[in-house]
Amino acid sequence: MSITRDSLLTLEAYSKIRKSSKPEVIAHRRLRSVALGEHVTVQFEDEQTIRRQIQEMLHIEKIFEEEGIQAEIDAYAPLVPDGSNWKATMLIEYPDAHERKRELARLIDIEDRMFVEVEGHARIYAIADEDLERENEEKTSSVHFLRFEFPSAARQAVRAGAQVKLGCDHSNYPAHLTIAPDTLASLAGDLQP
Predict the structure, then answer these.
(1) Residue 191 DSSP class
(2) Number of Cα atoms under 13 Å in the Cβ half of residue 11
(3) Average pLDDT score over the chain
(4) Residue 167 near residue 124 (C-beta atoms within 8 A)
(5) What whole-number distance in Å separates Cα of residue 177 and Cα of residue 122?
(6) I want to staple 117 with a disulfide (CB 3.0 to 4.6 A). Which of 11, 86, 156, 165 is the partner?
(7) Quick one: which of 10, 28, 72, 64 has its CA closest to 189?
(8) What distance in Å separates the CA atoms of residue 79 and residue 85, rounded to the nearest whole number?
(9) pLDDT tens across 97-156, in order?
(10) Rg of the Cα trace of the chain?
């Protein structure tokens, strides 16, 4: 199912369920988030997370005109996985502003060094920040959008229960971990055979 104007709640209907549905939304987001080291979090998106994001934007901005609603859908819909990939928002977080500035300068191109590794298969490196101009030679952004495009055999292996690692081989942020079984089960559902 894709996100269309007709599949979204009206501002009034969303306002009624916004608070009561928040714990469920947080639990789903937490299930699909992976902390890689102390400073990088990868939030894997799906239709549910993106639908909520669109509804939130419409709510916050009080958008109810067709054009504005369609603009939000067009902005966020590309972040929904399409069956052959995982799509994610990568957050680089340093609470201290001076440390953040220094580390973002040290982490230029980190988004291109992010990978998933399906047991028995070659690493799949992220395709980062498509449709966005992010060239900054002084520092990287603290938010990146990643797409991990799976070959058919790797998709089948994930769906069959293979272990998957998430990692980064940037020289200033080497890290990797095995994705937890419950998170991996949710992510496996994003892949078509």
Answers:
(1) B
(2) 12
(3) 94
(4) no
(5) 16
(6) 165
(7) 28
(8) 10
(9) 999 999 999 999 999 999 999 999 999 999 999 876 655 678 899 999 999 999 999 999
(10) 18
- How many angstroms separate the CA atoms of 162 and 118, rounded? 7
- How many whole angstroms separate alpha carbon 158 and alpha carbon 116? 11
Q: To which H or E segment does residue 119 belong?
A: none
Residues 6+ apart with CB under 8 A from 167: 36, 114, 115, 116, 117, 123, 175, 176, 177
Which token pair is 106? 């040290």
Tell me how far apart the alpha carbons of residues 47 and 76 are, in angstroms, rounded to a whole number.
10
CA distances from 128 to 31, 43, 56, 62, 97 (A): 22, 14, 24, 31, 24
Q: What is the dihedral of CA 22, 180, 123, 140, to 10 degrees?
A: 40
CA distance 132 to 191: 25
Q: Which residue has the tokens 């490196």?
A: 125
User: How does DSSP classify residue 5?
Assistant: G
Give the tokens for residue 54.
Answer: 């669109």
Q: How far apart (Å, rounded) are the C-alpha atoms in residues 92 and 104?
A: 8
Amino acid symbol at 61: E
Distance of CA 124 to the CA centre of its chain: 16
Q: If you write DSSP's letter for every residue of 67-112 in order, what string do you get?
A: HHHHHHHHHHGGGS--BSEEEEEEEE--SSHHHHHHHHHHTTTGGG
